[in-house]
Amino acid sequence: MVTAPSARPLIQALLVDDGVPAPWSAPAGAVIPDATPLLQGSLETAAAPDERVQIVAGGRVLGEATIDPLTMAWSFRLALPPTPGTTYTLTARLVGPTGLVGPQSTGWSFRLDTTAPLAPRPALVLDTGISATDRITADPRLKVTGLEAGATWDWTVDGGLSWTAGVGSGFSLTADGLQTVQVRQRDAAGWVSPPSPGLTVRLDRLAPTTVASLDQVPVGTTGDPRPLLRGRLSAVLAADEQVVVLQGSKVLGVGVPDADRLGWSLQLNLPASAGSTIALTVAVRDAAGNRGPLSPVRSFVLDTVAPTTAVVITDVVDDAGPVTGSVAPGVASDDATPTVRGTVAAALGRGEQVVVFDGLQRLAVATVNATTRTWSANLDLPASPGRDLSLTARVVDAAGWQGPASAPRPFRLDTQGDWSYDWSAAAPLPGAPGVQLAQVTVPGARPLAATCLRIDLATPGLRLWSSGRIDGWIDGQRETLTQTSQGAVAASRGGPTPLVAAVNADGFRLTDAARPVPTDLRGLAVNGGVLVSSGSGAPTAPVFLRDPLSGARILPMAPAGLDPAGLEVAVAGFSQVLRQGIVQGDAITQSARTGLGLSADGRQLLLLTLDRRIDFSAPGGLVGATAWEVGAVLQGFGAWDGLNLDGGGSTQMAWWNPTAGQAQLLNAPLQERYVGQSLGVGYW
Questions:
Q1: Which residues of 572-603 are buried (b: 16+ CB within 10 A; e: fewer)?
Q2: At residue 265, does pLDDT exceed 90?
Q3: What is the mean pLDDT of residues 140-150?
Q4: CB 506 within 8 A of CB 525
Q5: Are 55 and 76 in contact (CB under 8 A)?
Q6: CA distance 591 to 633
Q7: pTM of the predicted model, to two decimals?
């Protein structure tokens, strides 16, 4: 009868003679580098003749070993495929000559690893400073990745001359300066990786010593989210240093050095805010992120949100002159300091005020009663012969943001009553039939020195003239030659169009006020049926025209397709200040003024100058007339429609004095510049 073997093999040792160190006996569960280790064992009891030890792994027979009959010992050299990490569990059993197998030994496990690990990778934990990728840092920590489980590792900064054992998954540099870091690892099988590629880093833990100041910041509250900051430096910055603006620890921006390299500036770009306090400091920062001394904190409030509280104007009160009390909307008042009253819908916030406006112009800040939510404001208006205001009130916060405007309240100021001139008292201009001269002071809080010619356009032989074309004329570029109006009168006397008087007219391109130069005009200009300027510089400017068929007229702008051949003269103005008896225009800006007016029947042409005078108590040391006053004075002289012509240093009126035999000024300008166009009257 054939029976299976009864003895149980024992696995006692696994001898490794490849790798480092070698040879050695690997315990169960070890990682080994040797693909041909020697497996050794014995038997619990004696084996029968012809029985052999069979080695099994994963149900597959790897081979058989013979048994020493005297010692019952056996050994077997494995021949495993090289792998980077495969776990084997070996068992042994006896097999008889007939193939019957006996009991199996206890399993013996190990992991075969015949491949060296890849090099681990070092990296900075934190790349501080200007760039997050330049590997210039104030943080000495590095982290190591790519480590195998169970591996040990070490690092070097001297190219491998010396290695320091690593602990955990990182290490810290110990010295500042430029250095190249490499790491390597030894796995559980004893294989050592190649060193990693060198990682060059610069450790810099020394803070800059240059001191930066913060000198220019918004004061109080601002509505500008992009304020300009400025400051100074105690020394010129090093090549790797910069000025940083900080809000707490947050960097808001980097300053731009001034030309002298000892100053800096930065325009911030802050998020919108309803009233946040912005507290700023500055410091010098180097490439590693080290910061020098912090400047003192400078603060301001950013408010980019407009108020929403509604305001109402309830009354305008006149307390000057013969008539006082509440002024009805649109009714004239002689009080240049009226009181405006109203209500506010809710309590005002911090820094908010009620402000009274005329259009866009701020007139006064109101006093607010927080208990009753009422307010009042005393206006201080310039004296006027008749000025229409449209009063509104609104809440304005400390940043200048304006809330919704109240409904407009019309108010007309007239501090001098209606003024008109009696032409029956005027003298005729000598040597000029149909032309009268008035030189008067228009009364008012700011008296105006007026010189006016009234020209009867029905006078036989009377003609109008304006500056003509220049040789080499180019429309819009080279149109006429500048000269004074006095010079225009003088030059005309020896030619076919002798003038008795002239005023400056349209605006022009000013390049030299003291000598004749070619220039071009703003608006339409025609002289004797010849186009001088098509008016490309001001195509919508109002114009004065005269032709034999339609006579004289003022139009809001030149009509399209106008044929200059039929026009005696065409002159453009800056603005129409008198339209069908209604005065209009800017009532604020003062200057010397030239005006042109036309009576309602189109027969009387009015040429006007209003001089400015020196007054050191006035802003800029000069007092003049407003465009609105040009319209009002033209109306007082009898005009129905009127234009504001070029003014300031251009304002001049000249005439031919037949007694003296020369051209002279009629008005008293503070200067007499060469102008681009004059409008004259004569006989031919």
A1: bbbbbbbbeeebbbebeebbbbbbbbbbeebe
A2: yes
A3: 96
A4: yes
A5: yes
A6: 15
A7: 0.49
* Structure letter (DSSP) for residue 240: T
State both tokens at 191.
Answer: 């294989």
Tokens at residue 102, please? 């006996």
Predicted confidence (pLDDT) per residue in 515-541, tens digit:
999 999 999 999 999 999 999 999 999
* C-beta of residue 354 within 8 angstroms of C-beta of residue 342: yes
Cis peptide preceding 23, ω within 30 of 0: yes
DSSP state letter for 528: T
- Whether 286 contacts 205, CB under 8 Å: no
**C-alpha separations of 194 from 82, 153, 154 in Å:** 20, 11, 12
Residue 620 backbone phi and psi in degrees, to 5: 80, -5
Mean pLDDT of 216-229: 95
Does an H or E element contain 221, and which? Answer: strand 221-222
Containing H/E element for 92?
Answer: strand 86-95
The closest of 667, 669, 628 to 648, measured between CA atoms, is 669
Residue 410, class by beta-carbon neighbours within 10 Å (0-12 exposed, 13-18 middle, 19+ buried)? middle
Mean pLDDT of 376-399: 90
What's residue 2's pLDDT?
76
Confidence of residue 47 (pLDDT cuts 50, 70, 90): very high
**Residues 130, 138 contacting (CB under 8 angstroms):** no
User: Would you say 455 and 434 are in contact if contact means Cβ atoms under 8 Å apart?
Assistant: yes
